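Most newcomers find our protein records easier to grasp once they have seen one. Nothing more is needed to start thinking about how sequence determines fold. Here is such a record, shown just as it appears in the course material:
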Amino acid sequence: PIVATAKTLVQEMDAKAVICFSETGRSVVQLVKKGVNVPILAVSPCPETARWLSLLRGVYAMNDEKMQKLAGTVQKDNQGFSIRFSEAVEEACRMLRESGMVNNADDWVVVIGRSPLFTLGENNEHNSLQLTRAKGPQATVG
């Protein structure tokens, strides 16, 4: 259901890209199967997953140093997670702009992930679907 809703948001809001945080890549594959017709920035903490996702049509699974740093900062410790969802979205929006996947900072972007990031549906994790501007959530709100 979240992937179908994401596709509807892309269409209704004329979003220019989707950011998908995924441990396994399943959500990214579902987006491709649903026919989302905008670039999908896939963020995965696993380099192997990122590599095979980049083979899918319309998927840009950045596996550079910046992306690995972002994914690597999401490490569970005794206090919880070391990066907030909004910080990860901010960094991914920056990557969208720098890579040219969006042309305008005011373009809409759909964001899919779990909160906390990169969890596999255990315990009390929640799916998250957001709509933000390409300039990032901090600039959008502030």
The beta strands are 17-21, 40-43, 59-60, 76-77, 80-81, 108-115, 126-133.
